[in-house]
Design goal:
By secondary structure, the chain is an alpha/beta fold. The protein is built from 6 helices and 10 strands. It has one domain: 3-Layer(aba) Sandwich (Rossmann fold), CATH 3.40.50. The protein is globular and about 55 Å long.
Length: about 210
Amino acid sequence: MFILLLGSYDDETKSALYSMQESIANSFSDKGHYSLLMEELNLYTVSDGHLLLLENREDYSTTIYLFGPIEGVGPIELETIDTISRTEDTENTVYRYLTERGFCNLDIAIEKMPIISPDGLFPFLVSISSVFLIVRLKEETRGGEYIELCYISRSPNLISLKGSPSIFMLKKQGVTMTSMLELILIEREIRVLEFSDTSDLLDKTTNIVRNFKV
């Protein structure tokens, strides 16, 4: 199961998002639950139809999620997850990985996908994620997470999720919301949880993931 973490990328919010990601990894990686931060990710398509989601880490390692070719309207199948060292640029890392996986006998070409397009990174993340946690830590940020929330809540892939507890707005106590945002949250039946500090945020994150039924 994938959990998509979203929020503004000011230093304070980014630190909270990384803490959430670390907490989920420590508590749930052995259960097959993985959290994703869009800032760290790149999506590549392979000419044979496979998809590679790359997560670059600060320790010069790259986690690669290899997805099988998309067939019809069924779910995208995750074939394997590997973590490799990153000693060259991202594109060469992809080619090295594919060669080591035995793709070298094919006429392989890869293409980095844009963030926003029908088959881009963000729509792909929405299509594979089961839980969405949108964090609002402070009022003076630009509010890009609201745009992401609107996209997720209106995505064709999520029509069947209306009324489910899979999309959460986590906001710090005292942070106000506009009337328009409140209407969107009500109309899409998105749950809003308030947290007092980072510790409380991590506790709520853990409880959401633990209690979600795949």
